[in-house]
Specification:
The chain has 327 residues and is mainly alpha-helical. It has 12 helices and 4 strands. It has one domain: ABC transporter involved in vitamin B12 uptake, BtuC (Orthogonal Bundle), CATH 1.10.3470. The strands form 2 sheets. A two-stranded antiparallel sheet has the order 1-2. Strands 3-4 form a two-stranded antiparallel ribbon. It is globular, with a radius of gyration of 20 Å.
Length: 327
């Protein structure tokens, strides 16, 4: 629709010129905030695949986000100290190469999502919510127990990953890398949702019994979507580990899962650009309100309630039109 295309085009132009605008305004620190928005938009995009299009309400999505972050941190730790990650039966060295650690973060998060999804998807409704939360907390306590990698105190990176001609230590270049990855996966998600797979997934969301009755193996479709979602969350985790140059078990905590869920609901479930708007609204409100009071959630809570009540299709539906709420 023309209105949706105009809004999407405006968002793209604003994202492209933002680093230059904030430099002219003398607020260079805003590039870091904008990068965080892009990263949370990416992890929101991953959750939206199963929540908005598949109807699977996961309250443990931060598990895959945290796993991706720890893959980068652990490999970087071993590379920095020249220690082998695994010495038997074959020796595997650490790495700080983004072209190695980013794909590994995605693969590892996807592999973790596979058995979790295989078990969780045997349930539905409230049981699915609670069992995803339980698995996330199990992983949270697993990383707390890893004293070699900081345990509860977390693990600091000695620097950001290397990426050939890109200097990721430069905040502007890192911002454009995050933006490029977000745009690539927005395009891929658009193609996926428009494919036969996407149509079946939306059919499962609307009426799973009917989809089963006409011959679709709904469990396989949901599990595939769950694994893709976990892998994409792992990539977002790899980015956040590089931006903060620090990881801790708090990346996997249920509070983080709640924040990701808020990002998707706020932006608009089942919409392509909803997670981007949701991430921007959530993080910018947090930034501004936290400057006034440390109890900023007291102010944020009512604001979220008002948005949910008066913009039931999220911010994307409110801005791009009521018919844009769900793709």
């Amino acid at each position: 629709m023309p209105r949706q295309a105009a809004v999407a085009g405006t968002l793209l132009v604003a994202a492209l010129v933002l680093p230059f605008l904030v430099e002219l305004m003398g607020i260079d620190y805003a590039v870091g905030i904008a990068t965080r928005v892009l990263i949370f938009a990416l992890v929101g995009l991953s959750l939206n695949l199963i929540l908005g299009y598949g109807g699977m309400v996961s309250f443990g999505h931060a598990a895959f986000f945290g796993v991706g972050a720890y893959v980068v941190a652990i490999l970087s730790h071993h590379a920095a100290y020249g220690e082998a990650l695994v010495s038997w039966p074959v020796e595997l060295a650490g790495s700080d190469n983004a072209f190695v650690v980013f794909p590994l973060a995605m693969v590892t998060a996807g592999l973790v999502a596979l058995p979790i999804g295989a078990i969780c998807l045997r349930t539905t409704g409230l049981y699915f919510i609670m069992i995803t939360l339980a698995f996330a907390q199990m992983l949270y306590f697993f990383f707390v127990s890893l004293e070699t990698y900081g345990g509860d105190d977390g693990l600091s990176l000695l620097g950001r990953s290397s990426a050939g001609p890109l200097d990721l230590s430069d905040d502007r270049q890192f911002y454009y890398l995050a933006l490029a990855l977000l745009l690539v996966f927005l395009f891929l998600k658009h193609r996926l949702i428009g494919s036969r797979f996407g149509r079946v997934l939306r059919g499962i969301r609307d009426n799973e019994r009917r989809m089963q009755a006409i011959g679709f193996a709904t469990y396989r479709y949901k599990l595939t979507a769950f694994v893709i979602s976990g892998a994409l969350a792992g990539l977002a985790g790899a980015l956040i580990a590089n931006q903060t140059e620090f990881v801790s078990p708090s990346f996997l905590d249920w509070h983080r899962s709640g924040e990701i869920l808020i990002v998707v609901i706020l932006g608009g479930m089942g919409s392509l650009f909803g997670p981007l708007l949701g991430a921007a609204a959530f993080l910018l409100l947090e930034e501004f309100l936290s400057q006034w009071t440390e109890h900023w959630m007291i102010l944020f809570g009512p604001a979220l309630i008002v948005i949910v009540l008066f913009a039931r299709r999220g911010l994307w539906g409110l801005i791009a039109g009521a018919k844009a709420g769900r793709d």
